Amino acid sequence: QQIRKNRDIVIEAQIDLEDVLTGKELIASYRLTNGREQSVNLQLPKGVDNNTTIKFPSLGDDYHAGMPRGDLLVRIKVRPHSKWQRDGINLHCIERVNVFDLMVGTKKNIKTLEGRNLAISIPKGTQPGTVLSISEQGLPTRGGGRGNIFLNIQADIPKVVNEAIAEKLRKIR
Q1: CA distances from 99 to 102, 136, 153, 157 (A)
Q2: Non-local CB neighbours of 99 within 8 Å, separated by 6+ positions
Q3: CA-CA distance, 151 to 119, in Å (whole number)?
Q4: Residue 21 region, left (φ>0) first, then alpha (ψ -120 to 50), else beta?
Q5: Which uninterrupted H or E stretch holds 44?
Q6: CB burial of residue 81 (10 Å; 0-12, 13-18, 19+)
Q7: Residue 105: what pLDDT?
Q8: Distance between CA atoms of 57 and 4, rounded to whole angstroms?
Q9: pTM of the model as a whole
Q10: pLDDT digit string, tens, across residues 105-127
C-alpha cells in the first residue's frame, strides 16, 4: 500500500554559471496551500545542470494533518554567461587573437570562470579556428574532478590605414 503524503511544491531557481562552479546557498520563499508563506535555506550542489530538478524532502505542503509533508522540488535554470558556453562539465569560449600574434606566437592571459588568470601559450602559426584545450579548469564533476576549457582561437585582423605600413606588409608577404 502506497503511503499518501501532502502535495509536492515545485519552484524555479535561477542561478549563474559561477554558481554551478561553487554551489549556491539560497533562500527560497513559496506559498503553501493554506496561504502561509514558507522560507527555507537551501544548498544547491556544485555541478548542477540546467533544467535539473532537485528534491528537498519534507519541505513541501503540510495542509493535511496526519499525513507526511510533501517535498520541495526546485527546478534549476542556469542563466547564459557572456563569455562561457557550457557543454556538460566543459566550458567553451571564443578567444580573439591578433593575426600577427598568431603568425609569430604569443602568450595570452585567460580569465577563468572563477576569476583566476591562466597564461596560455599560443604557438606560432596557429590557424584561426584552432581549439586549444586546458585540462581540469572546467566545471566540477560529482566525483570531485573537473572538466576542461576549450578555447576557439579566432583571428583579429587590424585595419591598416597607413599606406606605408600596407606597403611593408606587401613586401613581407
Answers
A1: 5, 28, 10, 6
A2: 155, 156, 157, 158
A3: 13
A4: alpha
A5: strand 37-44
A6: middle
A7: 97
A8: 14
A9: 0.85
A10: 999 999 999 999 999 999 999 99
**Is residue 1 predicted with pLDDT exceeding 70?**
no
**97/5 Cα distance (integer angstroms):** 59
Using alpha carbons, select from 70, 13, 10 the residue that is nearest to residue 43. Answer: 13
Strand-strand pairing, 53-56 and 72-78: antiparallel
Sheet containing 85-87: give its strands across.
85-87, 90-98, 149-156, 131-134
Q: Report the mean per-residue pLDDT for the chain.
A: 94
Task: Quick: pLDDT tens for 53-73.
Answer: 999 999 999 999 889 999 999
Q: How many CA atoms lie within 13 A of 92 on its CB side?
A: 8
